[in-house]
Amino acid sequence: MRKESVPPLKSLQTLAAVPAEKSEVNFPRHILDTLLRSSPDPTFVVDKNGRYLYVGDAGARVLGLPAEQIMGKTNMELGFAPEAAEELAVQTRQVFLTGQTVTGATSVPTASGKRLYEHTLSPIFNDRGEVTAMLCVAQDVTERQRHFDLLRERDQRMQMALDAAHMGTFEANVRTGEVRLPSATKRLMGVPADLFIPNWKTVGAYVHPADHHSLRRAILIAIKSGRDYAAEMRILLPDGSIRWLASRGRLTPGGSNTRQWLVGVLWDI
Question: pTM here?
C-alpha cells in the first residue's frame, strides 16, 4: 500500500473549532452538508480514534448503511478486514501526529462486495492550528485495477510465448537514446535480467563491432524514410560464443508528429 506525505489541506481549517483534547468536534453542519453531500466520491470525517463523525451520501451508499448507523463506529466495527482496518488506523494516527495529508489504497466491504478504493486523508485544523478531525475522500479504482491486472497477465503470457519462440521485443527512443528491453530480450542477448540497460551505447557493448555500422545505417534509413526498420546483427554472448539475431521495427510518432520511438522484435536466426 503506497503512502505519501503532502502539505495539509489548509482550506478546511475553519471546519473544526474546539480544542483537540475534547472527544467531539463541533462542525458548522450546513457547510459540511453542502461539502459532503455534493461530492460524487465517498467522503467522511473521523476523529483521532478513527470513529466516523460525519458521512456523505456517497459514503453511506458505498457502505450500504444509513449515515446514522455509520457515525460513531470504527472501520473494524463496520466489517473491514483486520489488516485493512489496522492500516487505516496507522494512517489516521500519522495524520493527527504530523498534520500532513496521507494517501493510500485499501479494500472496502461494500453493499456489492469488496471494492478497492484509493483514499486521501487530510487534517482538519482548529483556530490554534491543532488537528481536531480528519477528512477522508475515497475513489473506487476497482475496475481500473482489474484492467491493470489483465494487462499484466497478458504481458506475462506474451513474454512466455516470446521465450518459447526465442524472440524478444524492444523499444528505443531515437532522439534520446533511451532503450527498454524486457527480460525475454535480455535473455536472448545473454544479458542478466537485473542488469540496467539505459541506452544504445550500452546495447552496443553486446553487438559485434563489425556490425555497428550496418545497425546504425539501418536505423538512420528508417528515421529518414519513415519505412520499417530491418537489420541483422551478431551478439557477443558471455561465454564467448556468437548469436545471430534478426530485428524488425517501426517508428512511432512522438510529440508534434515527430518520429521518436522505434519499437520492434528480434529473434534468433
Answer: 0.52
